Amino acid sequence: TPITSPDLSKCSTGTNLNTQQPLDVNCCPPVSKEIMDYTLPPVRKMRFRPAAHLAGEDYYAKFEKAVGLMKALPPEDPRNFMQQANVHCAYCNLTYQQTGDPNLKLQIHNCWHFFPWHRWYLYFFERILGKLIDDPTFGLPFWNWDNPNGMIMPEVFARKDSPLFDARRNKSHLPPALADLAYSSRSPTNPKKIIPNNLTVMYSEMVRNVSKLEDFYGAKYVVGTAPDPGPGSVERGSHMALHGWIGESTPTGEDMGNFYSTARDPIFYSHHTNVDRLWTVWRGLRGPKPKDFPDSDWLEADFLFYDENAQLVRVKVVDTLDNEKMGYVYQDVDLPWLKSRP
Ligand code: C2O
């Protein structure tokens, strides 16, 4: 049986996954009795998601304005920035029971729902931003850390007066530090080797180590599966490495290095937009090989989000398979790691 939407009224204080202690913040969303089954609206104008290092000042002016407005919404509005950040905490930090097996918790990471769930999460975050600035074509920027030209944190996120700034980061990883896709606090990569090493990491995650669908997506997770059956290659590797690389170098790693706080850092959304883009890129590289699990246990799984009109909606994995049907495309950029077979 597929994972289905949690009962929001049964949301509880979750667990800090870095310390395994109860969380000292409440990240439960507002409850709403009215849930709409979401159907993808017809695409009139495609949203364009640019590479963060290639986007211009005009674009950033819009993006900063939109995030500023989102932060200024009333705190109880489910579209408010902190509410959006808490959505991530609630789906990750074991605040919900699995519908159908109350003894087990819901966790959408480290399993085959990682890509689809985050795609929906960004989808609504982007639509809320677009609505706040009255621009239905607004698309999130992707942090193009798989390309040497994009490996430094995009500078605007490090400007202290920007709504994209977050003080809770590792100070030695601000620009001009190069992102380390194999980062671990115990053994950071030799700075001279970061670029070639990053490219090899990408090749392994996207090409070499992903012959089976589970290798890329992560392990099967259905009602009755204990949380964390196993992450896919990108989730386990470059994705997690950068979470830890950006967060403070403390055991609790706020903001980016801890799941409850990670989405409080605006760079989270550009980090994940790149992860989402890599999903699209990987599908393109698959050629005739299957790109999706055919199981209804995957396709029919559903989640709840608040949309840009603050309506609670139920969304399915099956609707995430094609980003163009969801109304957005990515700026086309080089894939230098394709030539980086180790
Ligand atoms: Cu939901 Cu990068 O984690």
Automatic annotation (TrEMBL):
Domain of life: Eukaryota
Domain Tyrosinase copper-binding: 109-126, 265-276
Keyword Disulfide bond in annotation: yes
Cofactor note: Binds 2 copper ions per subunit.
GO molecular function: catechol oxidase activity; metal ion binding
UniProt keyword terms in alphabetical order: Copper, Disulfide bond, Metal-binding, Oxidoreductase, Thioether bond
GO biological process: pigment biosynthetic process
Crosslink feature (2'-(S-cysteinyl)-histidine (Cys-His)) location: C92-H109
Residue numbers binding Cu cation A: H88, H109, H118
Residues at which Cu cation B binds: H239, H243, H272
Disulphide linkage map: C11-C28, C27-C89
Cofactor field: Cu(2+)
Family affiliation: Belongs to the tyrosinase family.
Protein name: Polyphenol oxidase I, chloroplastic
Organism: Sesamum indicum
Encoding gene, per UniProt annotation: LOC105176877
Residues of the whole record sequence present: 95 to 436 of 585
